[in-house]
């Protein structure tokens, strides 16, 4: 119901670039995320409360994916059941779980 939808997922020179469509409940439309290993390099929101999403994005830069998930998961905006920060946490959980799956499949093939 409040899930994010993966739009694209590419890796270039060790930097993973993912884009997610947010649910209709929040003001932002899309979140673009760059990670290197388990560290967030960049977050950019499309639409939403510009000052808040910009501040949130900058605070996340350089943080571990798991730390951001722990801090943002479950934040609610105006009783909607989710928020722009919660949508970021959901997107990062998708990245973390797919990254783990990729790592496990690489280990099995070795």
Can you give keywords for this protein?
single chain; 110 residues; alpha+beta; Enolase-like, domain 1; four-stranded antiparallel sheet; 3 helices; 4 strands; 41% helix; 30% strand; disordered C terminus
Q: How do the strands line up in the largest sheet?
A: 1-2-3-4
Total of helices: 3
Q: Would you tell me which CATH topology applies?
A: Enolase-like, domain 1
What string, H for helix and E for strand, traces the elements in order? EEEEHHH
Beta strand count: 4
Q: What is the C-level CATH assignment?
A: Alpha Beta
Q: Which bin fits the share of residues in helices? A: 40-55%
Shape: globular
What ranges have pLDDT less than 50 throughout 5 or more consecutive residues?
A: 103-110
Rg from C-alpha positions? Answer: 14 Å
Domain count, please report it: 1
- Structural class designation: alpha+beta
User: In the CATH classification, which architecture applies?
Assistant: 2-Layer Sandwich
Q: Distance N terminus to C terminus? A: 38 Å
């Amino acid at each position: 119901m409040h899930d994010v939808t993966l739009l694209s997922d590419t890796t270039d020179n060790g930097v993973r670039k993912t884009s997610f469509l947010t649910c209709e409940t929040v003001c932002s439309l899309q979140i673009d995320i760059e990670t290197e290993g388990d560290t967030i390099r960049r977050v950019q929101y499309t639409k939403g409360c510009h000052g808040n999403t910009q501040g949130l994005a900058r605070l996340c830069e350089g943080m571990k994916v798991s730390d951001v998930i722990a801090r943002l998961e479950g934040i609610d905006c105006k009783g909607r059941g989710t928020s722009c920060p919660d949508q970021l946490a959901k997107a990062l959980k998708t990245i973390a779980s797919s990254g783990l799956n990729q790592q496990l499949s690489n280990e099995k093939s070795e």
